[in-house]
Specification:
281 residues; alpha/beta; 5-stranded parallel beta sheet; 36% helix; globular; transferase; transmembrane; membrane
Length: 281
């Protein structure tokens, strides 16, 4: 199984309406990815000082009660995963899901994926939505995409990403999923993590594996070997690395150094790139 993010076909093959729909799909993903979490965090805080303060108080109380839900499988929504807008996002790049082997649903899987890229568009389309028909290609498998635990601290946004089947990339969360009595759980881990996004440079294909062996122990602990699943073709064939250009000049650049030092397993400084998700192509 592989994920291919290739350069878009000539727009002359698409109607103007189709191009507009795809652009809407891409822009809503980019804007949601960048601003939904900060926006609702600020909104909940600001409402505390207005006549609408009960809304913030009620939500914060509920948030405390619901705090551990992401570590217990979350709340996925098949309705969200099957929205038509994800097919428009898929076609914008386009993103493809290529099946190269059968994955029997009588066992669980830990799928190591790379490269991380900037916004993980290929992973979202293929494992967090049904835009490429994952359930039809691999019947009986239930995909989970493991992401930064810090994303689940953001009000409202946490509920939104849980609806896709996203979960924290923590031992507690992944052990819970892989310990379920129902087999066929397929956890997708971006092995290089958000730190690997610093290496998202067109023409290069970098994988960060040093001190990233936890996914191997996770797979062995739950009775099976890890399965590598590269989400993009080699750089010379295009791919997610070619969708953006970093503002820093390389490993020795000051901006790159600041991003690396401020990175942590739960939070990271936003990676500054040009052409995010090809929204500005």
């Amino acid at each position: 199984m592989g994920v291919a993010t290739t350069l878009p076909p000539p727009t002359t093959s698409k109607t103007l309406q189709k191009q507009h729909l795809e652009a809407v799909g891409a822009y809503q993903y980019v804007l949601t990815f960048l601003f939904m979490g900060p926006f609702f965090s600020l909104l909940v805080f600001v409402l505390l000082f207005t006549s609408l303060w009960p809304f913030s108080v009620f939500y914060l109380v509920w948030l405390c009660v619901d705090w551990d839900t992401p570590n217990q499988g979350g709340r996925r929504s098949e309705w969200i995963r099957n929205l038509a807008i994800w097919r428009q996002l898929r076609d914008y790049y386009p993103v493809k899901l290529v099946k190269t082997a059968e994955l029997p649903p009588d066992r669980n899987y830990v799928l190591g994926a790379h490269p991380h890229g900037i916004m993980c568009t290929g992973f979202l389309c293929n494992f967090s939505t049904e835009s490429n028909g994952f359930s039809q290609l691999f019947p009986g498998l239930r995909p989970w995409l493991a992401v930064l635990a810090g994303l689940f601290y953001l009000p409202v946004y946490r509920d939104y990403i849980m609806s896709f089947g996203l979960c924290p990339v923590s031992r507690r969360s992944l052990d819970f999923i892989l310990s379920q009595p129902q087999l066929g759980q397929a956890v997708v881990i971006m092995v290089g993590g958000a730190h690997e996004a610093l290496y998202s440079v067109p023409g290069e294909h970098c994988l960060k594996l040093q001190k990233r062996k936890g996914f191997v122990r996770l797979a062995l602990r739950h009775g099976g070997p890890p399965h590598p699943r590269p989400p993009a073709p080699p750089p010379h064939r295009g791919g997610s690395q070619s969708l953006s250009r970093p503002l820093h000049d390389g490993p020795g650049a000051a901006l790159r150094g600041a991003q690396g030092k401020l990175w942590s397993p739960r939070f990271h400084l936003p990676h500054l790139h040009l052409g995010l998700a090809a929204a500005f192509r």
